[in-house]
Amino acid sequence: MGFDRAAFEAFLETRDEPGWVTDQRRVAFEVYQAKLSDELDPEEWKRVQLRAMQPQQFGIRPKTTLSSGFSTLLEDKATFGGSVVQVDGSCKSSQLDEKLAKQGVLFGDLADLVREHRDLIEPHLMTRAVKSDRDRFSAWHAAFWTGGTVLYVPRRVSISEPLYSLMGLVQAGAADFGHTLVVLEDGAEATLLEETCSLTEDIPGLHVGAIELLVGKDAHLRFVQLQNWNEQTWHIAHQCGRVAANGTLQWTVGGLGSRLSHIHQDVHLDGRGASGEVNGVTFATGKQILSYYTQQTHHAENTRSDLLYKDVLRDRARVIWRGMIRVDKEAQKTDGYQRNDSLMLSHTARVDAIPGLEIEADDVRCTHGATAGQVDAEQVFYCMSRGIKESEAMNMIVEGFFHRVYDRIPVEVVRETLSHAVERKLGLGRSE
User: Fold this and answer.
1) Contact 268, 242 (CB under 8 A)
2) 110, 181 Cβ separation under 8 angstroms
3) Distances from the Cα of 128 to the Cα of 203, 212, 218, angstroms
């Protein structure tokens, strides 16, 4: 248990990995130790309640032999060109269609691929997107990452079938430091669907993760992450996408589970004509706290970003969203948009939505907005007066509220899965 220096040295003894990875870890651990005494950025963290999180209660677990019969949202819903399953930070299974492997595609466990493909992994792993010195959590992750998923797609290779990645927690008190690294070379195309889940509803867990999405020139990536931990799990993650000239990144985030979740999400548009679209669907109930700190940064001219987050809250749940569009001086002709809409199903729910702009260029179009409100009682009454049960009326209203963001998701199985998950969380429990 714990993550002090003795625990770190003991952890290194268990790793079978090349020296460059160990060196990288040692540097990150020293940063982590130094930043433990530093105040977190108040602009990002002042609304996030971390006092109840006790890291010493969690630890990295040895590879488990327990059954991993997860109740997943996506795993059995489509045909995939490959899959990676991580349990308690260790790879349980990994497979890739032979046709894709023959084209040079890599899809597998990060812990294996750092040994087998240093030339492809080292230049990208926490060097261009997520940085280990960002704060104590990114350094913590960089020092202790255990496994995760790598997708590497060579130049001009197009993958038509989606790929699938699962991170699961099985053992009580397990800490997962999973890392997702996606590299699309110029002209490549791929879709990766990722989800997180817990084996049971009552086991406590911790996830301190990172996602790096690196999109080359004229490349196209569709990435989906559905966060569906149980409500005893703490979820802290740094996530970053970088898009080169004329590349596109479409990123969908589903926030359903966890006790407390905080995601730092960056999209950097690095090359002329780069485009990034971010879709967010969040449903918080009970005493859940789901927090997002999003940044869309335009570094080059003629770039476009479009972010839409939709939140539904019930009971005493809280959702926090702090968004920012940044435009560099050189990024003329930028088109940036961000919006957060929140629907509260109870008077005790709370939302904090704060959009922002920082613009240094003088020829741009950037807009932002945020709305929040209660369910219209007249809408519910209207439905009930026509023989519709109150629970069904609420589902119709919530489904309609999410419809705009569903329409922006091109992967049908993701749209259907989110819709079913929302119904279950409303308590309707659609049978499948």
Assistant:
1) yes
2) yes
3) 35, 8, 19
Share of the chain above pLDDT 70, in %: 98
Strand partners, 90: 87
User: Coil, strand or helix: which one is 200?
Assistant: coil
* Cross-strand pairs, 338: 307, 368
Take residue 38 and report the two structure tokens written for it: 């530093």
Predicted local confidence at residue 430, as pLDDT: 43
Question: Residue 116 phi/psi, 5° resolution?
Answer: -90, -20
**Type of residue numbered 394:** M
Q: Which amino acid is at 291?
A: S
Nearest alpha carbon to residue 393 among 416, 377, 415: 377
The whole-model pTM stands at 0.95
Task: Report d(CA 432, CA 59) in Å as an integer.
Answer: 36
Do the beta carbons of residue 261 and residue 232 sit within 8 Å? Answer: no
- How many other β-carbons are positioned within 10 Å of the β-carbon of residue 252? 24
3-state secondary structure 203-265: CCEEEEEEEEEEECCCCEEEEEEEEECCCCEEEEEEEEEEECCCCEEEEEEEECCCCEEEEEE
- pLDDT-derived band at 431 (thresholds 50, 70, 90) equals very low
- Say which residue the tokens 């890392």 belong to: 179
